[in-house]
Design a protein that fits this description.
alpha/beta, 16 strands, 19% strand, four-stranded antiparallel beta sheet, 14 helices, single chain, globular
Length: 415
């Protein structure tokens, strides 16, 4: 318990925790506080709200603690309000986050190739200082899918001070979902001499955290209302996150953690035209999708990128191969050289990433409203001034060409 204050995710913009241990007060807000009795260990949680209300989470005493110190606890409790005042104010979560987008990518990598271009876009944006990729959540079961994300992270040098960008993997997700372009063998590709074509950074994929667990770890560590989630696959891990309870990373439930930390969810899913169609990402795991729609906080924004918005943005296989002209040892180029990618693959997924990083200015969006998911996988949008949802509206031919050119230009770069 004494080390709780050092748990990743507790910071000035999160719940303020005080750990009293051996006469020293450790406050994660970084400011000095009052003393505590020797051998006492107390953990307080103060939730910063507009009225600065506080609550005591728990009081834990060592079994051998001498009762003669009990007077001090009454004194400490009377000083809670003073502690809260001294540690809040300028550092609390009332200040809006103004930094670059902090992005978590949630992907069903291993099937459609637009997931690969979404990752490539995020690497490029990060290298340009326009976003920070916090982690990759793989929502398609299989360690080979996680290995594909590992290949991409390693190849593009997407690293932070702790090593490669963390990867989480769904364990109890959708069984045998449809595979459109099977490139899960990418991590096993070899050069002419038999050596691996692509390096990897993760030694044991079985040790990866579940996707929802990585979500909790990453979200808890970020400033309030700062995280942009790009969901370009199934809603398995999002549903499991929302159903999760408090843990070592945060005492908040999954719903409250999302409400506290997420700025906006950009999700590829749905078809909202005149004749709505069942959505692949939703229908493949309709139970997870229904849970996601039921539990997602109504005061956290969602921007839906539907099928019709990406339709017509087609990156032809021969263009992909020719655009990476300087080498054959490129993971996306190798997928296109090895697999049959002439399947009508559109660039649906990257539109969530572009929106998250470059903002709404490049898109036409509906007014605010709500989205309801039916059991058959169809989703319906209804206008509402108090709704949390907006939908990307399909652009014209010039807009589609501009989006494709943006994706192509990134793919041409020697990152």
């Amino acid at each position: 318990m004494a080390g709780y204050a050092d748990v990743e995710g507790i910071g000035a913009n999160a719940d303020t925790l005080f750990c009293f241990f051996n006469g020293k007060v450790q406050c994660v807000c970084g400011k000095s506080c009052i003393f505590a009795p020797k051998y006492a260990m107390i953990l307080f949680k103060f939730r910063h709200t507009e009225t600065m209300r506080s609550e005591m989470l728990s009081i834990i005493l060592k079994d051998d603690m001498n009762r003669k110190f009990s007077w001090a606890f009454a004194a400490i409790l009377t000083l809670c309000a003073a502690i809260l005042t001294g540690c809040s104010s300028d550092d609390d979560d009332t200040q809006a986050y103004t930094g670059v987008p902090l992005v978590i990518l949630d992907t069903d990598i291993g099937s459609s190739t637009d997931d690969l271009f979404s990752l490539e876009m995020l690497y490029y944006y990060q290298q340009q200082g326009r976003c920070k990729l916090l982690g990759v959540v793989v929502d398609r079961e299989g360690e080979d899918c996680a290995a594909c994300a590992d290949v991409m992270n390693t190849y593009f040098g997407c690293c932070d001070q702790m090593g490669t960008v963390p990867v989480g993997l769904v364990r109890n997700g959708i069984k045998t979902p449809t595979v459109w372009i099977d490139y899960k063998a990418l991590p096993t590709y070899t050069k002419a001499d038999g050596t691996p074509m692509f390096a990897r950074s993760i030694g044991d994929y079985s040790a990866l955290p579940d996707g929802w667990q990585l979500y909790r770890r990453l979200l808890a560590a970020q400033p309030d209302h700062s995280v942009s989630i790009c969901s370009i696959g199934f809603t398995t891990c999002l549903a499991q996150l929302l159903e999760s309870a408090g843990d070592a990373y945060s005492p908040l439930s999954g719903v409250e953690l999302v409400r506290r930390k997420v700025k906006c969810l950009y999700i590829q899913g749905g078809s909202y035209g005149l004749s709505p169609e069942p959505d692949y990402n939703f229908l493949q795991g309709i139970g997870f999708a229904k849970t996601f729609f039921r539990l997602w906080p109504s005061d956290v924004d969602i921007i839906f990128s539907p099928m019709e918005t990406g339709n017509g943005i087609e990156y032809q296989p021969e263009q992909v191969v020719s655009d990476v002209s300087w080498t054959d040892h490129h993971p996306i180029k190798q997928v296109y050289m090895t697999c049959n990618c002439d399947t009508g693959q559109m660039m649906w997924d990257p539109l969530t990433v572009i929106n998250a990083v470059e903002g709404d200015g490049l898109f036409s969006l509906t007014e605010r409203g709500t989205v309801v998911l039916n059991d058959d996988g169809t989703a319906y949008f209804t206008s509402s001034a108090t709704g949390n949802s907006r939908v990307q509206i399909p652009g014209d031919k010039a807009w589609r060409s501009a989006m494709l050119e943006k994706i192509r230009n990134v793919n041409k770069c020697r990152q």
